[in-house]
């Protein structure tokens, strides 16, 4: 059976390089049911534990949508040209926002990852929450041991200035 999940950081680094143009943009109406969303980030029974699963659900050219499940803290990230719209489906965690990234690396054009966020604000997130992270704002999903979070991210391309 084909596995549709990817492991981070390689998955999100690939997604970030040109947010998801690997999949041709869709144009018609689309429905993704609850079961399909849940299956997208459910590890196979025989799979080794993974700190994050991500599944590209679609690409509309100027925005993409991804299902994610994390069981560990992610790395700090900053996207120059993309807003992240997050909708928490299950579980919870804390999003560290703002401040400045120190010690990060350029992972793709317009993408900074890694290092440490200093001076950020903590925003707890739980199922049902909607969080919008504008382009240029450092952010990092943080989880305490034993926590997990499942969420959708819609990456919206900022218009060229």
Range of helix content: under 10%
Average of pLDDT: 85
How many β-strand stretches? 12
Strand content: 35-45%
Q: What structural class is derived from the secondary structure elements?
A: mainly beta
CATH architecture: Sandwich
Tally the structural domains.
Answer: 1
Gross morphology is globular
- Extract low-pLDDT stretches: 1-22
What's the number of helices? 2
For the record, what is the CATH homologous superfamily label? Jelly Rolls
Q: State the major sheet.
A: 7 strands, antiparallel
Classified by CATH, the class is Mainly Beta
- End-to-end C-alpha gap: 44 Å
Structure report:
By secondary structure, the chain is mainly beta. The protein has a single domain, classed as Jelly Rolls (Sandwich). Strands 1, 2, 4, 9, 10, 11 and 12 form a 7-stranded antiparallel β-sheet that branches. Strands 3-7-6 form a 3-stranded antiparallel β-sheet. It is globular and about 40 Å long. The chain starts with 9 loop residues before the first helix and ends with a strand. The N terminus is likely disordered.
